[in-house]
Design a protein that fits this description.
Layout: E1 10-14, H1 21-33, E2 38-43, E3 48-53, E4 58-61, E5 67-68, E6 79-80, H2 81-89
Parallel strand pairs: 1-2
Antiparallel strand pairs: 2-3, 3-4, 5-6
Length: 90
């Protein structure tokens, strides 16, 4: 069994058709409750990215040119919705 004692600074989850979105979101919320700064939920079927912030607010990014926010420690990293889904197609 995998046991982690520290929360990651940033999580990125890719939702697959056979996965339960509820279970993935619960994992994201658990991480945020324990110190994760930001989480991305990438939904390839809907071609959107949901960003969960540390304060548990969220934002949805679905337009290919939309820049997706990244945590402060990862600046100046920048990526758009279109770039993320382009990588997933490769």
């Amino acid at each position: 069994m995998n046991t982690f004692t520290l929360a990651p600074d940033w999580t990125i989850e890719i939702l697959f058709p056979e996965q339960s979105q509820t279970r993935v979101v619960l994992n994201i919320l658990h991480c945020l409750a324990h110190g994760t700064q930001m989480s991305w939920l990438i939904d390839p079927e809907e071609e959107l990215v949901i960003v969960y912030f540390a304060d548990r607010t969220l934002a949805v990014f679905a337009t290919p040119g939309d820049p997706i926010p990244s945590p402060a420690f990862a600046q100046p990293f920048s990526v758009t919705v279109g770039q993320v889904f382009g990588w997933l197609e490769e």
